[in-house]
């Protein structure tokens, strides 16, 4: 493997000194980029893009060609694991993800296999290996997975949902069945992330998109507990370096303290929490990643620069901050506005690291 | 006016002793009730239902016929104020609300009138008077309005939005223009709520549905500041009784302390905050309203009862709690499940008030 030329991300995630604050964007390989839309067109549908290691590599690298980002993130979908469990993931144009088969009773949970990542998810591991090769050590590669709770909601509902009626009904009425499903998912996700690390992922992130729809009690029991189990089961060193783990629960700003106790190295923050306040709350236990309101990128470059400056100022001096949006970049953002944000992070953060 | 026979709600909102915890449900007059759907059918469209004082009264009273609720809430829409400002509110089947005209520049903001509630919003005041008459003092009537920020998002976007691209662009790029719009809305909402109180509303609630999409800083500047101004401008006594004011920001669990400083009597809580923790944070400054996960009503009556018990237990002994869902009741809930919740609140809360 090539020597890593820019290790700011890994250093900041481990709260080691850096020259400037590293920056990347959730969904940085995505629809806001015309070159992404062109590759997607070439691939046909979304899952064909995910399943082709060459095309997944191509779109993963696209934002790095445009912007001086400090990380690449594997291009894939959070629902590859349930798909590999045999649920039949598909996307209908203009709709969210759907499964051919949902998981709503004991027999269905019991029948779910824990996939072998190098078999059923081989295309993801091949994408990781291809991207690492093509990156030539420019920046580190982040691997990722959905959280067990987040995956479970799609599996029980059979796709996207507004109300979580079926997933939450199972949780309230048959908690032991939901636990059986989450247990299986935690084992599958642990194996999946460890395989990504073995294939070359240099940091991993767990996306808990729907943990924030739970009460604090249910969050701890049905989402956080399983993320903690994954964190405990991960390979934390590879190629002679630590592999940092980032936990991100959208809407989880009220639960940073228990999240920091999982053993994760860093927490992702959405924009509804002040990052300075968050830093005071978690102390030196974890690094923080975030947390610009993604809508700031709709504004003018001048307003973007001011908003970046405020996030940096609120975080304050010293390492432990990875700049990011508080959620994925919206598909209608002008790429030049993303550039304005990234440049502002590097320029304005220097004094905080001197 | 008839003597108020059940004043639990008003007493709990003012943190005065009660025999059992009062309970009502956001959107209790709504689509989950077959009798509501029948009246709605009779009215034709949704706005005709809102504009008819007799039909609005009919649906307001429907849930009280079924359930031993401790409050009625005016049936209306949060967008009546911008409609009265001349924006032309309409609803398309299966879509969210839309305006014929949006408000996106200085001229449009300047042209907005502050409506006279007894003129352009007379149908709302007539509904309040009709409902009060027909309630015969059974329970108090809650009036309400959307918050300035929430109304502004619809007015700038021209309807519902997922990303708040236009409203937030205006906020970031032309903050003084957004402030001019919010200032006008704060004056309109103050007049609107005071007119509801004069017409017979015995408590009022401000719904800040979209304040939770802001950063903490933007929330204080663009949402909370204007709600505070409204609270300061409200008539706080009518018919010889205090008129309590409830503030509810969905997703605002991180900002309870500044919300409690506005002078409101009570704060609405969604289900992502533990109500016991919230009580410790706000102390005796305000009462709390909430906060069952509305999805609990999808579960079995046994699970509903247990979940109600947990909210009551977390709040603990003493007054200052109005039981509610953490958000509006979902349209596909079985009314018997709502009944199970309401009965459980009255039965299980008695020991906390002895």
What does this structure look like?
The radius of gyration of chain A is 19 Å and the shape is globular. Chain A has 354 residues and is of the alpha/beta class. The model of chain A has no long low-confidence stretch (mean pLDDT 97). Chain A is 48% helix and 12% strand. A seven-stranded parallel beta sheet of chain A has the order 1-4-5-8-9-10-11. The longest helix of chain A is centred in the middle third of the chain and has 25 residues, at 175-199. Chain A contains 15 helices and eleven strands. In chain A, helix 8 crosses helix 9 and helix 8 (148-157) packs across helix 10 (175-199).
Can you write the helix and strand succession of chain A as a string? Answer: HHHHEHEEHHEHHHEHEEEHEHEHEH
How do the strands of the widest beta sheet of chain A line up side by side? 1-4-5-8-9-10-11
Tell me about the largest β-sheet of chain A.
Answer: 7 strands, parallel
Give the termini distance of chain A in whole angstroms.
Answer: 32 Å
Q: What's the multimeric state?
A: homodimer
Number of helices of chain A: 15
> Mean pLDDT score of chain A, rounded?
97
Determine the most extensive contact between two protein chains.
A-B, 35 and 35 residues
Low-confidence stretches of chain A: none
Radius of gyration of chain A: 19 Å
Q: Helix fraction of chain A? A: 40-55%
The structure class of chain A reads alpha/beta
Number of strands of chain A: 11
Structural shape of chain A? globular
Percent strand of chain A equals: 5-15%
């Amino acid at each position: 493997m090539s020597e890593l030329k820019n290790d700011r991300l890994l250093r900041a995630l481990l709260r080691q000194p850096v020259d400037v604050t590293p920056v990347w964007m959730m969904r940085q390989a995505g629809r806001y980029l015309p070159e992404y839309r062109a590759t997607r067109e070439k691939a046909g549908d979304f899952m064909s893009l995910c399943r082709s290691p060459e095309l997944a590599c191509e779109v993963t690298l696209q934002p790095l060609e445009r912007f001086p980002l400090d990380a690449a993130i594997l291009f894939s979908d959070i629902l590859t694991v349930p798909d590999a469990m045999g649920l039949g993931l598909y996307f209908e144009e203009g709709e969210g993800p759907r499964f051919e088969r949902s998981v709503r009773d004991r027999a269905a949970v019991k029948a779910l296999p824990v996939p072998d990542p190098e078999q059923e998810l081989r295309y993801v591991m091949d994408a990781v290996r291809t991207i690492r090769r093509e990156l030539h050590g420019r920046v580190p590669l982040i691997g990722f997975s959905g959280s067990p709770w987040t995956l479970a909601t799609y599996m029980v509902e059979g796709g996207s949902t507004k109300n979580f009626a079926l997933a939450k009904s199972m949780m309230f009425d048959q908690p032991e069945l939901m636990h059986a499903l989450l247990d299986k998912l935690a084992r599958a996700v642990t194996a999946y992330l460890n395989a990504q690390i073995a294939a070359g992922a240099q940091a991993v992130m767990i996306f808990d998109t729907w943990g924030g729809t739970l009460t604090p009690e249910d969050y701890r029991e049905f989402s956080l507990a399983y993320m903690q189990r994954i964190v405990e089961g991960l390979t934390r060193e590879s190629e002679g370096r630590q592999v940092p783990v980032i936990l991100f629960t959208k809407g989880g700003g009220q639960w940073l303290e228990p999240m920091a106790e999982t053993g994760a190295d860093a927490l992702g923050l959405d924009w509804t929490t002040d990052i300075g306040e968050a830093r005071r709350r978690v102390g030196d236990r974890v690094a923080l990643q975030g947390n610009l309101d993604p809508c700031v990128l709709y504004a003018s470059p001048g307003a973007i620069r001011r908003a970046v400056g405020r996030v940096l100022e609120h975080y304050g001096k010293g390492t432990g901050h990875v700049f990011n949006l508080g959620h994925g970049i919206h598909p209608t953002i002008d790429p030049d506005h993303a550039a304005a944000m990234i440049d502002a992070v590097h320029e304005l953060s220097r004094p905080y690291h001197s």
